[in-house]
């Protein structure tokens, strides 16, 4: 990179990598690639968490130019940070604890053309005096994420969920109002951020979506009738909840009419409660290096999410690969209408949509 190239400081709440186990960090890796292609020198400050180290024990190399750095988030650091920053949400408190001084040193030592913040969790690593000069790319609206967690919490967990929701709501509103510019990844999040903040200037940047196969690769020879696919990072609570909900509430309704229905649960880090589903009619794959064969094989993709927030990359990937998809309203968030997409929330309606697609396929 030319030493005279304009510099961009990019803070990412998670480490950007094409090999990341979640879609968000892959999106940020492409953002860095595009900035470098435009002649920018990108200095990145990013964070790796415990799950990253399960799959990358050697740690990540910093992405970007000289001065880039990856900070490790550990359980001990999270606890210390929560004690030091009691007013910050737990999701945001560790990053300023480990990285604020380093970011301040970067700002004092270099002139940056722009400051980019990917994931709102990273904003607190930036001194608040610099927020007005930053552009925040919001991958998820945390207020919505924590509201849904609260709605599904019970007992003592509900009290803890309510307290954290209140902290997130106050903090996120303050960030949205103080940061210079905001970009959402879909029109739904743009409207939600503007409602929370009172702003009217939120931009939208739709992410680049990968199609794992050309839809023409799905033929009568490859597609297995009655095979459903759930595709996602199974280590995330919202994905595990979606699969357990589907198996308990929806799959039995489908099997009343189609007892031959099979479910493939594909994705890294399935917890024990998901692994226990493995058996006749349910296949739990764990990590899949190349999901293309599964995308050719499945008749229908399912996204029965009840938790989570932000644009649903998994739904877009299924659609881009030519699979008909049945999703809940949450599972279809940020996804534009498509002739391949059916949206249903009640278990009976979801099952009916799946059966309708199966019947339509059988008649073709």
TrEMBL record:
Domain of life the protein comes from: Bacteria
The UniProt record lists the keyword Transferase: yes
Keyword annotations: Transferase
GO molecular function, one term: glycosyltransferase activity
TM spans (from-to): none
Protein name according to UniProt: Glycosyltransferase
Phylogenetic lineage: Bacteria, Pseudomonadati, Pseudomonadota, Alphaproteobacteria, Hyphomicrobiales
